[in-house]
Amino acid sequence: MSQTPATVLVVDDEPPICENCRKILTRAGHTVACAYNGQDALARMTDQTFDVVVTDLKMSRLGGMELLRRVKAASPDTMVIVITGYSTVSSAVEVMKLGAFDYLPKPFTPDELRAVVAQAVQARQTLRQNRRLVQEGPRRRPTVHQLVGGSAKMKKVVEMIAKVAPTDATVLITGESGTGKELVARALHANSRRSEKVFFAVDCGTLSGNLLESELFGHAKGAFTGAHKEKEGIFQRADGGTVFLDEIGNIDLEVQGKLLRFLESREFLSIGHTTPRKVDIRLILATNQNLEEMVAAGRFRHDFYYRIYVYPIFLPPLRERREDILPIAYHFVAQFARQMEKPIRGFAEAAVQHLVQQEWPGNVRQLRNAVERAVIHSETDTITVRDLTFADTNSDLTTLMTHVPATNEELVQLKKEIRSKAVLAIEKNFLLHALNENNWNITQAARQTGLKRTNFQNMMRKHHLKKPKTP
Prior knowledge:
This protein is an alpha/beta fold. The chain has three domains: 129 residues, Response regulator (Rossmann fold, 3-Layer(aba) Sandwich); 148 residues, P-loop containing nucleotide triphosphate hydrolases (Rossmann fold); 143 residues, Helicase, Ruva Protein, domain 3. It contains 20 helices and 18 strands. The strands form six sheets. Strands 2-1-3-4-5 form a five-stranded parallel sheet, with helices on both faces. Strands 9-12-15-8-16 form a five-stranded parallel sheet, with helices on one face. It has a two-stranded antiparallel ribbon with strand order 6-7. The two termini are 43 Å apart.
C-alpha cells in the first residue's frame, strides 16, 4: 500500500514500543520522532509541527487523554491516534469525542499501524484542502477551460492538450463514461487556430449507420426514402472548424471506411452525389470502449483504428484521482448555488469525508448530479452528509431497477449504479446486524464477523454509523 510521507510523533512510556513503531512507520516512508511521555511530546511539538501523533492512553507523566486535548487545542489539523489496551476499550468513545482520528487496541500488527496512519494522513490532507477551498471562495477555482482538478494525472491531461491543441492532428480521447471527454474536446478547440470557428459535437451512439452518414456528409434530394430535400451535412457546415465524434465505438464498419477515406484525402461524398467535396476540418474522436478488443473481435476496422490513433489522451476515472473530488465538488457548488441564489459556501467535514470515500462509478457526471441535488436540498450555508445522501435509499435503488435504458451506454452506467448502491445497502445491513447482535460493542462485532477492528470501524465511518444515544 503506497503512503504519502508524513511527520509522525510516537508517544509511549515504554521505549521498546516507541522504537518498534518508529521502525514500522519509517519503513513506510514517514519521518518519525519518539517521546516517552506526554510532557516530552508537548515540548517536541513546540519546536516541530507533526502531521500525526500516535500516543498511548496510559502514561505516567501526562496521559494520552490530556495530551489529546492539548494537541487538538494547539493544532486542530494534527491527527491523533490513541493506542489502548483491551481493558480500556470503553474509553475509546471518550477519546473520539475529544477529536481523536482513531484508536488502536493492543496488540496491533505492523499492517494495522501503517494503515491507520495512512488514513490519518489522507484525512488531514482532505481537511486542509476543504478549508482552503472554503477560504478561496468561488472566484478562484483552479479551472483550465472547464477542466477542474490539480492532480498529477489531470495536469498531464492539460499538458497534452496544450501541446496538441495548436496543431491539426487527429486526437483520440478515451475514458469511462462521465469523465469529461467532451470538455477535453472543447478545450482542444478553444486553444487551436480554429477557436473562432464552429465546434460540432456528434453523439455517434444515438445514430444508426445511414442516419449518421447523412448527418455527417449530407444527402441529395431523393437519395433515399424520406430524403425530400437537399441536406447539407455537418462536415460542410463545419468547414474551417472542429468536429467532435463521441462514442465512435458505435459507428458501423461502412461509415468507418468513409471516415477513413476522409481522413486520408479530406474529401467526402454526400449520399446521392457523385462529386466529392473538400473541406478543412479537424476531427476529434472519443470512446469509452476498448477499441483494441473491438479490432480483435472484428467490430472495428484496424486501418481506421491505426489512422485515428495519432495522439491519444486518456481521461482517468475519478476514483483514480481522489484529490480532484473536492475541487470539482466546489466548482459545482459555486455554479449551482449561484444559479439557485443560495448562500452555500462549502461542505461540512463529515460531508467532505463522504465525498472522497465514494467510488463515483459515474465519474464527474455522477458527482455533478449529487452536488446539484445537495444544493437543492440544503437549507443552510454548508452542505451536510444528509444533503448528499437523502436520495440514497432503497427506494432509489428500486427506481433504478425499474428504469429501462435506451442505449448500451445507459445500460452500462445503470448496471454500475445499481451494483454500487446494492453493495452499499448490503454492507450497511451487515454492519447493523453485527452491532445489534453485540449490543454495539465494536470489538466483539468485529471479532464475530472475522474483520479486524480497524477495518470494521472504517466501514462504520463509510456508512456514518454511530451508537444510538440511550434515552
